[in-house]
Write a structure and sequence with these properties.
Layout: E1 22-24, E2 31-33, E3 36-37, H1 38-44, H2 47-56, H3 62-73, H4 80-88, H5 95-109, H6 118-142, H7 155-164, H8 170-183, H9 190-200, H10 205-216, H11 224-232, H12 238-250, H13 268-284, H14 288-304, H15 312-320, H16 328-349
Antiparallel strand pairs: 1-2, 2-3
The structure holds acetyl coenzyme *A (ACO) and oxaloacetate ion.
Pathway: Carbohydrate metabolism; tricarboxylic acid cycle; isocitrate from oxaloacetate: step 1/2; Organic acid metabolism; propanoate degradation
Active site: 260, 311
Catalytic activity: oxaloacetate + acetyl-CoA + H2O = citrate + CoA + H(+); propanoyl-CoA + oxaloacetate + H2O = (2S,3S)-2-methylcitrate + CoA + H(+)
């Protein structure tokens, strides 16, 4: 992998701490979680195994995995006070704001009083996040109060069951599993860095995650999967995609779902989710979204040497599974909570408050003028 020239604004290229969790753009295909290559993980394990790996340091054995999954499954009920809050959030709200409020409210109800409660608070968030967003979504959009305790074994299938009221197909459960693995962890990205800054003040874990959700929401970060869907949904065919993109590039507009702050030539997660998007297109028997996405990829590389990041083919993949666009970024939260919280624990274990300096560009020192002398 060619190193990207890292410098300039945005703290690019500056080492801001240490981590044993993840490498981005350094070894293997370009992304590893605790030494395991992302492609091998995506092929061989479940998201719950990855969540365990990030939380505990090693992959679980069979007994540890079954205990872990049973524990997560037992934590899916939403407290009534949180349901009351969710029912008051308007239908027009963005689901990422619902996630933010839901996480914050959970922190009021089940406050992390001391750091030795971190592991149970983390498991609770992992277990509860699909229920939080879908309890609100189904109540506000369909007028139903769903039971958030399903029999589905995996978090991905649980999410789809709550959304569609029926167990997902094997294919859909497999895509969700892979998607959650791909999104789980990514070193010092903006939302994780937010969580670590918050953790460095010795704040509680719900504050760290609430702040991270706010950072992930933006279209330059996790929000790009929704923005990518907005871009491709009206493209009629590859020729239309080509024309639309050329126009946008001419107007110097940003194409969401392309480019990356660290990777230079490709994002290793793209190849994996792209293959699933193709499978879904074949299964649905409608390849329009896949075909226009592929043309976007060709045009962006030809014109700008920019490549699709993890978000771009997630748009068509999620759409093929009948997931409404505004729920795309909350799925990212359901996964990334594993990475965020592993970083919070890592920060706490070797902490110094994160407090960089700034180059001052304001006026020279000056006296305060009397009111009558001000312009
Ligand atoms: C899971 C994730 O969070 S992945 C990221 C998701 N975000 C997106 O997809 C949003 C679109 N992409 C972008 O905005 C950027 O590529 C970012 C935010 C991901 C990275 O930003 P940076 O590190 O500043 O990008 P980089 O230094 O590579 O930019 C180089 C040039 O390419 C341009 N560029 C980068 N991405 C794009 C894009 N998607 N569309 C058009 N031009 C772009 C930049 O404007 C810049 O041009 P300039 O030199 O004329 O100013
Ligand atoms: O690393 C980044 O800057 C953004 C990203 O891809 C992620 O958080 O998954």
């Amino acid at each position: 992998m060619v190193d990207k020239k890292l410098g300039g604004a945005g703290l690019r290229g500056q080492v801001a701490g240490e981590t044993a969790l993840c490498t981005v753009g350094k070894t293997g295909s370009g992304l590893t979680y605790r030494g395991y290559d992302i492609k091998e993980l995506a092929e061989k394990v479940s998201f719950e195994e990855v969540a365990y790996l990030l939380a505990k340091g090693e992959l679980p054995n069979a007994q540890q995995l079954s205990d872990y999954k049973a524990r997560l499954k037992s934590m899916r009920a939403i407290p009534q006070a949180l349901k009351d809050v969710l029912e008051r959030i308007p239908k027009e709200a963005h689901p990422m704001d619902v996630m933010r409020t839901g996480c914050s409210m959970l922190g009021n109800l089940e406050t992390e009083e001391s750091f030795d409660q971190a592991d149970s608070a983390i498991e609770r968030m992992l277990a509860l996040f699909p229920g939080i967003v879908l309890y609100w979504y189904r109540f506000s959009h369909d007028g139903v109060r769903i039971d958030t305790e399903t029999d589905e074994d995996s978090i991905g299938a649980h999410f789809l069951k709550l959304l569609h009221d029926e167990p997902p197909s094997e294919l859909h459960a497999a895509v969700m599993n892979t998607s959650l693995i791909l999104y789980a962890e990514h070193e010092f990205n903006a939302s994780t860095f937010t969580a670590r800054v918050c953790a460095s003040t010795l704040s509680d874990i719900h504050s760290c995650v609430t702040g991270a959700i706010g950072s992930l929401r933006g279209p330059l970060h996790g929000g790009a999967n929704e923005a990518a869907m907005d871009l491709i949904e009206d493209m009629k065919d590859p020729e239309d995609a080509e024309k639309t993109l050329m126009g946008m590039l001419e107007r110097k507009e940003k194409i969401m779902g392309f480019g990356h702050a660290i990777y230079r030539e490709f994002d290793p997660r793209n190849e994996v989710i792209k293959a699933w998007s193709k499978k879904l297109a074949d299964q649905v028997g409608d390849s329009r979204l896949y075909d226009v996405s592929e043309r976007c990829e060709e045009v962006m590389w030809r014109e700008k040497k920019l490549f699709p990041n993890a978000d771009f083919f997630h748009a068509s993949a999620y759409h093929y599974m009948g997931i409404p666009t505004k729920l795309f970024t909350p799925i990212f939260v359901m996964s990334r909570v594993t990475g965020w919280t592993a970083h919070v624990k890592e920060q706490r274990a070797n902490n110094r408050i994160i407090r960089p300096s700034a180059d001052y560009t304001g006026p020279e020192a000056r006296p305060v003028p009397a009111m009558a002398d001000r312009g």
